[in-house]
Structure formats: structure tokens, C-alpha cells
Amino acid sequence: MGIAIVDGIEVKFDDAEKLNGIELARRAGVEIPHYCWHPGLSVVGSCRMCLVEFGTRDPHTGQISIWPKLTPACNTPIRDGMVLVTQSEKVQQARAMVQEDLLLRHPIDCPICDKAGECLLQDFHFRYGQRERRAPWRAFSSRRRDVGPNITLFVDRCIMCSRCVRFCREISGTAELMIVHRGTHEEIDVLPGFPLNNKLSGNVVDLCPVGALGDKDFLYKQRVWFLKRHPSVCTQCAVGCSIWVEENQDRIWRIKPRENPHVNRWWICNDGRYSYPYVHHPERIVGARRREESGWVPVNWTHLSSEINSFVRSAGSLVGVLSPFLTVEEAYLLAKWIRSIDPRAPLVLGPVPVAGEDERFPGGFVIAAERCPNRRGVEEVVAHFCGRVTPFGELPEVARSHRAKVVWVSGGYPRPWDEAELLAPLGELACDWIVQDMFFAHVYERAKYVIGGAAFAERAGSYVNWNDRLQSVPRAIRPPRGVRPELVLFWELLGREGAPDPNPVRVELAQATAYFAAAIAPVPETGIDLKVNLLAPAGNSLDRSVV
Amino acid sequence: MSDFAPVLLANIDKQESHTLKVYEAGGGYRTLRRVLREMSPAEVVQTIRRSNLRGRGGAGFPTGLKWSFLPQDHPGPFYMCVNADESEPGTFCNRIQMEKDPHQVLEGVILSCYATRVRTAYIYLRYEYHLAFRRLQQAIDEAYAAGYLGKNILGQNISLDIYIHRGAGAYICGEETGLIESLEGKRAWPRIKPPFPAVEGLFRKPTVVNNVETLACVLHILDRGVEWFQSIGTPRDPGDPRDPGSYGPKLFCLSGHINRPGVYEAPLGIPCGELLERYGGGVWQGRKVKAVAPGGISTGVLSAEELDTPMDFSGPVRRGCLGLGTGGVIVLDETYPIVEFLYNSCRFFAHESCGQCTPCREGTQFALQTVERIRRGEGRLADLDMLLAIGDNIGITPGTTICGLADGAAWAIKTAVRKFRDELEDHIRRTNPKGYHRSAPPGTITLNLAGWQLDSGPVGGRDGQKVHAA
């Protein structure tokens, strides 16, 4: 343990944390501006924006002596008795000069720059810059350079913090970006024939403190101050990265990583980042319909739950297919409703899409081959009701042996089912089935009911990733007209009172099952590890925990 | 002081002085034989520490102290980098040493490696030194053949390999960590210190980085003893316990407006004026001195009134300069406009700034553009204060940037503006009497189309052409 002083505020810290000046000051609520430093990358200490005055306090006399030279906070490890002065005139002068230097050749084309509004250069200029520009020339050029299929570079906006270069070397391990030339002629560039084309390339745009690196997917589409962001979880693979969904009037414009030290740290992959367009796909199933002799008949949402309830109750025997795209709460409510009608109804885990193998990057980032967000969670819900998890391939057999009259199929898959192996079990079914999904597959022509399902950003609820970490997120956007999220439908089917809310459902589930016991408390933003609290309520002995 | 006989340059006038035969005939490698036989590495380090030898590369850091920073319990390997990337303007003393007496350099390197337990040394040679490269390589080959290099040097259980690495002509590679990065095959961006190279340097191993001339001095200290070395130069200041003194001979490179430019060996502490008169033969064409850069342009300038400055490590500092630097003395005569000196030095540093730290990368360019404007005849008196502010920003105290290049750039600007302010003001008043300048006044929009700067303001653009911004 140690104590350091930031602008007169005493901060306690642990030596094992290995804090630097910026992190320490953050704990005291003091901002030390910086460009080149990023917690996930190596330290270069080159922007010189974080220069502050350091000193030491004598442990015996309490006398404080300040070091004569300004010291970069990013590169100075904090030890007991250190003193930081971040607001002195000397520091402010140094910051103002760095700001002036950075703006000498910067085009200051904020009106046409995508970064305007979330640009550190802008923010720090207002906070730490000086009003006058002493250089009598005005640079204005905004050369644009194509560095990769989804990234574009505005060369003259760059302030040479080298974050993107370090990211490509240290995290993605591909090292496409580099710095060419010297001094003021320095530019970020790629080698001819080796574009910035890796699966993590989108992160360099988030890292860029100014508008130099632009995302072609987002370029010139929205001003950032119109966007509202909502915490969410990426549903593209089993890792379950924490993300921000940034929307304007229920239209998603971009997805950004949300810092989560337990899952994705600061990064997300391009698969997740650019996956959102399916949410607004024009071919999504909207509304609910029933198949008659004459063809599809639309069903009004107000009558839907009662109609389905009576249809299913008259049939009597049921099988449920719980998709790994459902949230934990939705899976639980669906299972509960099915069991309330047919207390012995078998539950089947929906198809788990797998693509290739897990991709691991040198910086520790992983893209899982399993392309669904919640297999673990749904498995545990199924196990809670049935004792064992039945894979999707056994669905026809299970339905036959149970003499099921109706099969409930839940979907939520981001693309239509066209893989033959996934369709085969459905095609063999001899009974009626009810489907809730986002996209229409050919085999759905034979379903009794087809109900539109919600996309990930339209659901509220919890996902459990492949490492048993449960993350609970709110709804980011409203679903399109004619679509009700699964949670709402199941809530109505069960005849529950009040507005549909995932939180009491999660608490109910946590009380009912040992696996989810830890989720009984409000879930923090970074999620909770279900493994940690699994042992005690499950009554397992300690030696089984050594996994 | 008049009976001073050159030591470092003793051999250079001999015929074929670069060959092993001539070097050995003059007593070469006898010190190596004696030291390997009689002294332990620790004793060598102790001797150098006692001699208070200070690095000749520019910063003047005590060499023995630097060596003693090497961790004792490290499993190794240790490396030595010989800094032969001599690129400070007006400096060419290492070149003469390597071209005329490469074996002296090698002997110094071998002795230093013995002292620091180094088994691999790299000579980082400036690319432009073609003759030095050939002669050094030849000397290394000869030394291998004679058993001074390679395995079991002189029959003892010591081995050393020396490799020459040629740089690509960047000034920043003379900075020790920039040199190490470059040697590792990376971009020569100086590293943040600590860790210092002695702890974690080349290939993340403990590394000694020393200048060519320093290593040659090591040889002569071991040859002639500490007492001889301390009999030359300026003794330490008794009032300052941290002053290690300035002992020993130093090579001075005289250049500029002087009758006999060249490399001369003189004791440290020789007054600047005496150096110019006795060795350089005075200013050319019978003119007077206007300014002298005592140790390359990055140390700043001395004015004509300051020619009594002793040329040791602390003398120029007392006159507002950065230090002795490399000993590259550049003389400007009375007719030379100081604005040209400013322009030249600003252009050099703006060109050579590695571009890592913001204040240096942008500040050197900012200063250059300001000086260019003054030189074009568009300066304003306020520009001089702005130059001083820029100088203070890029080198206000050590610590504003990672390495010392920015300090060098700042000192050239600051000393020139402070010491020759009257002349600069005269120049501005004469060339721009109305204080008016052609660059766009505030409020105008400037377009850069295909690299041409076109102004849309009321003043008109390049070549008086009026261009309207869309």
C-alpha cells in the first residue's frame, strides 16, 4: 500500500497495481490530458501532453520537494510518497504550447471532420489551449489516403501519437501501419500491396484521438453529437464482447467497443463492429401470421398470445427449441411457459452455429468459432428444467418419442437458416410448429405460425459467454413496427402482470438455480462471473473446483 | 600549456599511419598487453573513474560512472556501441581519428570492452565516412589476424568481436538510444529513459555507449596514468562538489571563416580566442570575429566579447551555451549576417528532428518558418519574442522532450536571438519597415491546391496573384 498526493488530494494505491501518473490522477478525479498513452498499448511518451510536475514527500519530515523538470505522467511509475502537481502555471504553459504545436499544421477542418465532437484535440484545445494563434500561416489540406478496405486516413489531421501503429504491432500482430519520413514530414502509411486488412482493424479508428483515421462504414453518415449510446453485448460470437450501440432515432449507426477488462478489454473485431446492418434489413419478418388452407393470414398482436395459448393447450403435448440467441430471461420464460402447459415437455437447445476455428491474436484478443452469444446460458436453463441438454440434431426423435403435437422453435439468428444440416431436423417434423425468428427460411413455409423476432439491440436481458460471465444489458433501440421482443411475447403468454422486465426474471432464475445464483444481485457493467459463486450453492466439494 | 604535445593525434602525420605495422612501431597495443596482464577489469573501471574522464560526445557525462552503472550480477551478454555517427555540424574529429589512426580507436575499444566485460562491440559509423569505413575494416581485419581480436585475445581467456554498422545519415542516430534502436533495425526514435542503456540497452541487454574520442582517451589514461591526465585541463571547481572537472586533451574542429580550418588537439580549458589565434591562425581575410559556435551549432553561440571563455565543459555554460558539445568550433566573421546562421541551424534541426515528440517536431518547424519569414524580409519585431518563446518551449528544461535534440535546437535559437538581438532588429526594420507581412492576415482562408499555397485574403497570393476561395 502507498499514498500519493495529486493536487493536494491523497490517493491510496496498491504497489501491485503498477499505476502511472495518469491512472493515479484519475482516481483523485483529476484529468491529465494525453494523446499517445493508451492503457492497452505500450508507452512511448511522445505527445508530451501529460507533462506534469512530480515531487516526493520526505516520509520523516513531511517536506515536499518538487523535481526541477516536467515529467511525463504516462511513463512515471507511482511510488509511495509521490506528489503530482497538475495545475501549476508551468504545466499549463507546457500544455498550451503542445496544443499550439499540434495545431500548427493541423487543417482545423472540424466542420467536415467525422471526429468533431469526440475529438481530443478539440476538447483539449478548449480546456488547455491558448486563444491566440501566433503562427501567421494557415495550413489547409486534408489529403485522404486509402489504407485498407474499411479504413481511410486523412493524412494532415494526424498528430503522430502512433497509437494505431502500436495497435497493429502489439494487439493484432499484423504490423501493417507504419510511420514514414521524418520530422514534420512524418505520415502514417502502409506498404504498397499490404493494406490494413486484419480482423481488428476497426479499432484503430477508436484509438485515433483526432480525425485522422476514419471508418468508411461510418464516414459522413452522422454527426456524433446526434448519436445516443447504449451499453450492449455483441452477439456475433461466444466471447460476448461489451459494446456500445450508438443510435439515432432507433437506427444503429455504429458499434464501438465498451471497456471490459474481463472480456474484450478495449477492443472488438470487425465481425462484430460491422454486423449491425442486419438489424435494419428490409426482409426481416414483421408481424405474426398463421397458415391456413388459403395461405398466410396475419394475426393481430393483441390476439396473438391468447390464440397461441388456446392452440397449444388444445394440442396438449409440446417440445421447445431454445435458441442460443435468446437471453437467459427469455429462455427461462419460454421454458416456464412450455412446462406450464405440458409439465413433461422436452426442451432442445437450438442449433449452435460454428464457423472455422477460434482466432487468437497476439494481444490476447479472441474471436470464437462458436457464432452465438448465449449457448452456456440457454444450456443451463434447459438443464435446470430437463436435467440434460438435448442437442438440436435429436429434435425429430425427441418429438416422436414424446408424441408432440406442437414444436416451438425460437430463432433470433442474424442471417436466414440456409444450412442444410440445420434444416434437416425441422424438415423431419411431422407435427405443427410455431416459429419466432428474424428472417424467413424456406422451411418456415410449413410452420403453423410465423412470428417476427427481435434483434440483439432490441432485447433487454442477460447473456452468458463461453467463460460463464453473465452480462446484463438494456434495450438499445425500439424494434421495428410489428415486432415484439421475445421477452414481451413470453411475458404475455405466461399472463404476467405489469410491464415486461428482465430483472425480476433474472432474480427468479437466480433463486431457482445454482448456476445463476450470483446473478441475484444487480449485475455490474462488466458482468459477473458465474463460476466463482457456483460452488457453494451447488454443494460441490472443493476438489472439483480445480479446473 | 605551451609545451602541450598532442597525444590523440600523435600518429596522424606518419606515412601509412592507418596500418598495424606503423601503429605497432610507434608503441601501439603495448598498453593492451600490459593491462590484460596486470589489471583486472574492476581496476580499469576504477582507474577511469579516478581520472574523471568525461564523455567527448557532447553531454560530458563521466565515463567511469557510466560504466559502473552496469549491473554486476547480470548474466549477460553485455554490449558496447561505439558512437561514430558524428553528425553535429562543424564536427569531424572522430573522422580524422578513424581515417588516420584506426588502431588507436580499436585499442581503446578493446580496453574498454575488457573493463566492462563486453564480448561484442558495434561501431555505429556514419554512412558518409567511406574512407573511415574502409580503414576501420582493414584495421579490424589486421587486428583479428594479429590476435588482438577474436577468441583468446593475446593468449588470455578473453574474446571480443567488433562489427561495423553503417548508419543511413540521420543526425538522431547519434543519440545513444536512437543509435541502439537503429542498430536493432528499427526506426531511430530515442527511447524514454530510464531504463538507461547501461541497464537495458541493445537487444534489451546492458549496453555501454561511448564516443570514439572518449575510448581513445581511455587508452591514453591507462597508458600514461591518471596523474598525467589530470595534469591537463581545468581542475574541478572546489566550490561545487558535483563538478567532476574538465581534464585531459580534447580535439577541436575549427571550421568556418578561419585561416587554417582543421582538427587540433588542445588541452581542455584553453580560451576560445587563443584556440582561434594559435591553432586556427585567426579569422580569414583579416576580419574580426562576430560569433563562435563553441561545440557544434546545438550548443548555441558565443559573441565576440565572449572569446575569453575557457573551452571546457563548464566554460560555455556560464556564457549561456548548452555546454562544450562536440568541440566543433564554427567561426563566423563580422560580415556574416546572423539571420543566416539562425536560418541554417533552424533548417538543420527541423530537417533532423526525428518527429517523435510534439514540441521538437512542430517547434523546430515553427521556428524555421518564422526565421524564413524574417530572412525573406517579412519579419516583425514581435517575431523575435516568439522565437524565444518557441525556444523556451522546445527546451525550457530538460524533460520537455525525450532526447536532447530539441535542447540543441532551442539553444541555437535562444543564444543567437539574445546575443544578437540588435542586429536582428536592424535587419527586420531595414527589410520590413512597415512591419507588414505578406502571409495571410488572420481571418482569411487559405487553400492548398496541389501543394501550392494560394491566399485568398485582401493581400493576394503567391506572386501577387489573387485567388478566391470557393
Protein described:
The complex is a heterodimer of chains A (547) and B (470). By secondary structure, chain A is of the alpha+beta class. In chain A, 24% of the residues lie in helices and 21% in strands. Chain A folds into 3 domains: 2-87, Ubiquitin-like (UB roll) (Roll); 135-275, Alpha-Beta Plaits, CATH 3.30.70; 288-354 and 372-545, Rossmann fold (3-Layer(aba) Sandwich). Chain A has helices at residues 21-27, 89-104, 120-128, 163-170, 203-207, 270-273, 301-315, 328-341, 375-386, 395-402, 420-427, 486-493, 502-512, 535-538; strands at residues 2-6, 9-13, 51-57, 64-72, 82-85, 144-146, 151-154, 177-180, 187-190, 213-215, 228-233, 242-248, 251-257, 288-292, 295-299, 318-322, 347-349, 359-360, 366-367, 406-410, 432-437, 449-452, 461-464, 469-473, 528-529. In chain A, a hairpin with a 2-residue loop joins strand 12 (242-248) and strand 13. Chain A is elongated and about 85 Å long. Chain B is of the alpha/beta class. Chain B folds into 4 domains: 20-231, NADH-ubiquinone oxidoreductase 51kDa subunit (Rossmann fold, 3-Layer(aba) Sandwich); 246-333, Ubiquitin-like (UB roll); 339-431, NADH-ubiquinone oxidoreductase 51kDa subunit, iron-sulphur binding domain (de novo design (two linked rop proteins)), CATH 1.20.1440.230; 442-470, no CATH class. Helix content of chain B is 39%, strand content 14%. Chain B has a 5-stranded mixed β-sheet with strand order 8-7-13-10-11, covered by helices on one side. In chain B, strands 3-2-1-4 form a 4-stranded parallel β-sheet, sandwiched between helices. In chain B, helix 13 runs antiparallel to helix 16 (405-419) and helix 14 (358-376) runs antiparallel to helix 15. The longest helix of chain B is centred in the last third of the chain and has 19 residues, at 358-376. Mean pLDDT of chain B is 89; it is low at 444-470. The interface between A and B is large, with 39 and 44 residues.
